[in-house]
Fold these 2 entries.
Entry 1:
Amino acid sequence: QDIPSLKDVLAPDFTVGAAVGRPQLLGVHADLLKKHFGSITPGNALKWDATEPTEGAFTFTDADPIVDFATANGIKVRGHTLVWHDQTPAWVFRDADGNTMTPTPANKALLLSRLENHIRAVMGRYQGRMYAWDVVNEVLDESQSDGLRHSMWYQITGTDYIADAFRTAHAVDPGAELCLNDYNTTVPARRQTLYTLVGTLKAQGVPIDCVGHQMHGNLQWPSASDTAATIEQFAQLGVDQQITEMDVSVYTDNTSSYTTIPDAALTQQAAEYKALFDVYRSHRADISAVTLWGLADDDSWLDSFPVNRLDAPLLFDRQLQAKAAYWSIVGQS
Ligand code: XIL
């Protein structure tokens, strides 16, 4: 397909990446990946349930081939993710007797030692090969009065797990850019909590280098103006920013579903992609990388989240052909 390379078009602005699994390393998918993307994020292969399913038994059977593919093809890798409430095995939150942890000093010490062991092993394996890591993922919950997610991490350690994770990560791989990653960061309540949290941690000397904005959106959300305001606010903290998981669902609610996606939706999707990429590009000094959460529409998490339904949230369709969304970013052919 003789179309411009997305990464070449965007090179003056930032690195562009895609989330992948092992299927994307083969055949026509690998060709598309190599042509258009300068960065990859393993979509699941580095999560705790994949890398340490039982305590101390580390496995890298999915992650190694992805990182090796990147190295062989001159593609950069973002690590995702070291500490999260989801896709984390239950053993992590069990106490010495095998029961679910309650908040005690002993459990806090045990949980933080597990966190540190995990980060040392997983980050350590790829030391020097990752340009960035999502050290901690999804700490916000605007339904809580403190704005923070009351995950097991939080219940047992308060916010100490965040500082501990970043300090440990910095010690393991000082060259990697360390990110705190979250979704819906353009929503004012979440944005403000994250801004205060990162500012406070940085003032305490916690080595946070970057804020990751997931940017899972839809045809009409988030707006360009909220996105620009969000980037400008975090720029005041002196951190880098990365767009880490962008996609644009063709649905604006949690219930509808199409059997065929209407052309009008794909046209509107292209307009949303263009509006947000225009914001990213005009804020290039603050944004070092933009990653799409998938390579093409044949492999998107949105086909099963929040419900099973046909979606088409990426730049390339199920036949790996460039969509209107791609052309809206690259400029018309
Ligand atoms: C998703 C993966 O894409 C799916 O394959 C998996 O079943 C669930 O997780 N926010 C994140 C990502 O930080 O890790 C999630 O990835 C999507 C939402």
Note: DSSP finds eleven helices and nine strands in the chain.
Entry 2:
Amino acid sequence: MLELLVDTDTGSDDAVALLLAALNEDTELTAVTTVAGNVPVPLATRNALLTLELAGRGQVPVYQGCERPIVRPLHTATAVHGDDGMGDLGLPEPAGSARPGHAIDVLLDRARSRPGELTLVTLGPLTNLAAAVLRDRALLTRFRHVYCMIGAPDAVGNMSATAEFNAWADPEAAHVVAEAAAPELVTWIGWDVSRRDAVMTPDDQHALRELDTPLAKFTQRINRKVAEWAATVTGLDGYDLPDPVAMAGVLRPDLVIETEPAHVRVALGDEARGQTAPDRRLDAPAANVTLIRRVDGKGFKELLFDTLAKRVED
Ligand code: BDR
Ligand code: CA
């Protein structure tokens, strides 16, 4: 049984990743921590609670975390995901609320109390994890593995010309994690993978509508702003789901078809802020992370559709 902790800036694709984790039979989602990113952290918490309740997993504890990046001001992605991060549908408020306690303490306490047992998946800026690493420099070794959806290894960005949002939003945090990482402990998956291997095409969206389950409708509706953005701003015929693709690689390692150990330094200067291009020189320093470069897009969509076909009892 995979025991997961998920750290998320819950916007619309994070929510779909939470559904995958919450409804996977071979996985126990032990807790969710939230961080500012796509939306301010109270909204990320609300969206995580709402999503878990919709999945019939309202008992999973949610802990709120950092309100802003370590150094920089908060810059949200509401232009992409909607003002509420969930497509501006006027969703109801969740029944539950965040548990007492800060996400940083939860990451520290849970990893220390179950060394080598828990798998951490981060879906937002690395602020919570970096702050925890600054308090315990060996923290990453206390997890079974840490997977981060972050970066643009080919330097094709979605936030700047060369940087991906989670790395760009809190580059100092990403830097702290990268410096403490080792390739057997930490895997990064960039947003490029979802765009290359797993775009939700118009046919996929049609199939999602045909599924006609509450979870399929929820997924299609909360991603409507992303779909608009992808079509109008980036010219993509469909929308991409970076966080669900990352989650699929964790839940189903057989879907990962190419990895690369790499030395990644996170650019901190203003010009290249958040760039995460690996050092591929012949004499590059030793790898600090494993990068996932390709996933089985067909297998990802099968997992997604199987999950969204589920009908959750009230
Ligand atoms: C990442 O940024 C956010 O907008 C998404 O939720 C995802 O985590 C993709 O660059
Ligand atoms: Ca995210």
Note: The chain has a mean pLDDT of 96.
